[in-house]
Request: fold
Amino acid sequence: MAHIIVVGGGPGGYPAAIRAAQLGAQVTLIEKSELGGTCLNRGCIPTKALLQAAKTYENAKEAKNFGINCQGVSLEFPKVMERKDKVVKQLVGGLGGIVKSYAIKVVKGTGSLTGPKSVKVVETGEEIKGDKIIIATGSVPVKIPIEGIELPGVITSDEALFLEKLPKSILIIGGGVIGLEFAQLLHKMEVKVTVVEMLPQILPLEDTEIAMGLDALLKKEGIEIFTDSTVKKITAKGNEKVVSFDTKQGPQERAVELVLVAVGRAPHTKDLNADKIGIKMEKGRILVNEKMETNVPDVYAIGDVIGGYMLAHVATAEGECAAQNAVGKSAKINYRSVPRCVYTSPEVASVGLSEKEAKEKYGQIKIGKFPFVGVGKALVINETAGMVKIITDTKYGEILGVMILGPHATDLIAELGLAIQMEATFEDIAHTIHAHPTISESVMEAALDVDGLAIHMPRKRK
Ligand code: NAI
Reply:
């Protein structure tokens, strides 16, 4: 039985450990903190728990739209945080049980490579020998080199998730996924929010029409957003931080209680010793091939530490791939249909190519769109903003990319991921009967619209 050592127990490492054990390997999992990594403890799950609390608060305040009078609605921030912690604790506990059921040995400590088949636990000095190693050490928030970045009150998402009280105001540097999710959850909890994004659009990698759509909705809600703007410095003034930034319209300043830096994450290789055992790296990330193999035989790397998508579900897929190869099966990673999700409200989800990428790659394309305002169920739940946009090639009608801005976008995208994976055409989706009344009808209608055949859309003028 092969002995596989997994370094890091996040959404890359723990599925790798479980899959290796399922396939008959003896597995040791080294984790310095809690099982579940960033995703479960400082990322996906706690932020979604807070977003849900913010939305519930808003729903209670706006229940009058449904003819329900709620008086005296208030938010108790410590209780909101308590619930978030409870959700995390339950998931981490459950994960511990699953890992134990597969007889995976969990060693608490920081793993440091001493050779291609051995890892030392930094805190105890114990050396663990195995046949193969899977590196899954994740990522850490990036800080930018500007004056004032080290001031107290300038935080990253790691600290933002453990605030003891809500600030009155916050400036968020970075209009990416983390920046926008925090912007909205804090705004819904009545914090004054300003977002400063360096590039011309928020969510710079997403389809421009969708990103601009979200930008407009967030501004309408009352969030201040500056794009094309660069933060110059942060200075302390009493209890406040004064953030100076340049915009296209000239210099600006905002005095705020907290500054959240959300400008991306970088591979985490501190203490790992990867370069010392000859593992090839580039700009801090470990290089791997499509089997997740590094250049050192029997050493694999997966998840945020290899760069690329930096998404929990991608790390999981890579972990499963590495585990299969490590036990002697043959697997290759397939990034064809990676869903990208942003949990604002309305949500954003996309898969495949954006309109710009599709045009660059295919020249001619066809587009079908359907707005949620035309979907009965969206009206029922009072969430009609946004649309579904489907991009196809002109030859076969194959679906190349889909973007959704709207209710339950992050769940709707699964159907389209499968479609892209199976090289389905827009007609495959259009001719699949979707239940009525559901939000998913929007997808069918957008597919029908590729040929101008959406039912709940007025005739288009030629
Ligand atoms: P990001 O790469 O999504 O966004 C960072 C943003 O900051 C970009 O828009 C970038 O242009 C901007 N930026 C960079 N330097 C700047 C500067 N000096 N001034 C102003 N703006 C600047 O990174 P983010 O949001 O920190 O997230 C990190 C990783 O975590 C990403 O890979 C993301 O996909 C992942 N993540 C995924 C989530 C999800 O799937 N829902 C939720 C949260 C994070």
